[in-house]
Design brief:
about 400 residues, alpha/beta, three-stranded parallel sheet, 14 strands
Length: about 400
């Protein structure tokens, strides 16, 4: 089978890219031909199809000047270049199915029209909430938000949801209205792959036909278990942004004499790093180490040596790979009760679930696992078993192929 894999970035930038590359490798191992389509970038993985990739565009605030910003806005709404280059790639390769990941902004839904002209069935993974929320997150101004339900995307402008900017929010709201009006996704996507049951239920609530949404969990190939006993630390790995709940984690540590006796290693970077570091200094949290951004290879030994991992998110996480990466290494996970997290962490079995934003409850969970290292280790064993049973590459392959076959009929 020829499978077209589409994602705006062709280098490992985040969770969506990790899934995009891992799935591509999995398909190749099973004998399928994988054809990538993405945006040009010096950091891209090598591919003979790079000549079909769309030109690079920098959407950062400081990039491009007035003319560049106008061009970027037009491309976000509808990229004729992406449609044209997709058309050329399809003429040469004639794939059996297209699997879309994150296409927004740098590629745009314009590529769906080219796929329809060539009669290529489309499957799309829901890595986030972009199809129902212009800001991707169902979160704004420090709280969960569903104001845009019923195609009321103007609320994104009123709230300044996108990067705190009404102008950016207006552009993303216009994008949502345009493609809802054109039926870009409704007319051309045959099935949506939902990594969590939670995101599947949200799509249904917001009006997407539930019969088109198929639950296929993310996957990970479990590595060898750590040979050494864990160190005197626990770990958080992820972005340093308000939605991730790291501030709540630091408050929980601050209030716990026991937690202060162990090290918290924070792997990641983001816009709130300076504020979080300042809080740690002010409160004398000398046991908190900020490691900065780590590559996957650098992060692996940090996770492998931890007692457990913490995922304190305050937005509706979909199916974060950080949970799978910790569980695959035999680590219990302490996670908040939002989004798809309770599907990945079985409370009292493979980890502990606490109420999002509740520093006291989070502190209690951390203390429980620190006081009872045998129980933490037991949970880690069960977490690893759950990964092997539910989140394995072979399980993911079978489910994905079933979706492709349905799409092609």
């Amino acid at each position: 089978m020829k499978v077209l894999q589409v994602n705006k970035f062709h280098y490992n930038r985040g969770g969506a890219e990790t899934v995009y590359f891992a799935l591509s490798d999995l398909l190749r191992r099973h004998g399928h031909e994988v054809i990538p389509f993405a945006m040009q970038d010096d950091r891209n993985e090598e591919t003979p199809y790079a000549r079909y990739f769309v030109s690079n565009i920098d959407l950062r605030e400081e990039a491009g000047g007035l003319a560049g910003k106008a061009a970027a806005a037009g491309r976000i709404l509808y990229s004729r270049e992406a449609e044209r280059k997709m058309d050329a790639l399809l003429r040469e390769t004639r794939p059996d199915v297209a699997h879309l990941h994150n296409i927004y902004h740098q590629l745009s839904p314009s590529i769906l029209r080219a796929l329809a002209r060539h009669k290529v069935p489309v499957v799309m993974t829901l890595h986030d909430y972009k199809l129902i929320c212009p800001a991707y997150t169902l979160y704004t101004n420090g709280a969960l938000c569903e104001r845009c339900k019923g195609h009321r995307y103007y609320n994104a402008v009123l709230q300044g949801c996108v990067k705190g900017s009404r102008a950016k929010s207006a552009l993303c709201a216009a994008e949502a209205y345009l493609h809802a009006g054109l039926g870009s996704y409704r007319r051309h996507v045959k099935f949506y792959v939902a990594p969590s049951r939670f995101i599947a239920s949200k799509m249904l609530e917001f009006g997407i036909d539930g019969g088109l949404v198929v639950h296929v969990p993310n996957f990970i190939a479990p590595p060898p278990l750590p040979a050494k006993p864990p160190g005197r630390y626990f770990v958080y790995a992820g972005r340093l942004e308000r939605v991730k709940g790291v501030g709540t984690l630091l408050r929980a540590i601050d209030a716990s004499a026991l937690a202060r006796d162990f090290e918290l290693r924070i792997a990641g970077d983001g816009e709130d790093r300076a504020e979080l570091e300042a809080y740690a200094r002010e409160r004398g949290l000398s046991n908190v180490r900020f490691l900065g951004h780590l590559s996957q290879a650098e992060l692996e030994p940090v996770t492998a040596g931890a007692r457990f991992a913490v995922v304190p998110s305050e937005w509706h996480e979909n199916a974060p790979l950080s949970v799978l990466e910790a569980a695959a290494r035999g680590k219990a996970v302490v996670a908040s009760d939002l989004g798809g997290l309770p599907e990945m962490v079985i409370h009292g079995e493979t980890g502990l679930i606490f109420r999002a934003g509740d520093a006291v409850a989070l502190g209690g969970c951390i203390e429980q696992l620190l006081r009872e290292p045998e129980r933490a280790a037991e949970m880690g064993v069960k977490a690893r078993a759950l990964v092997e049973e539910t989140f394995s590459p072979e399980s993911h392959y079978r489910r994905t192929m079933a979706v492709y076959e349905r799409a092609m009929t």
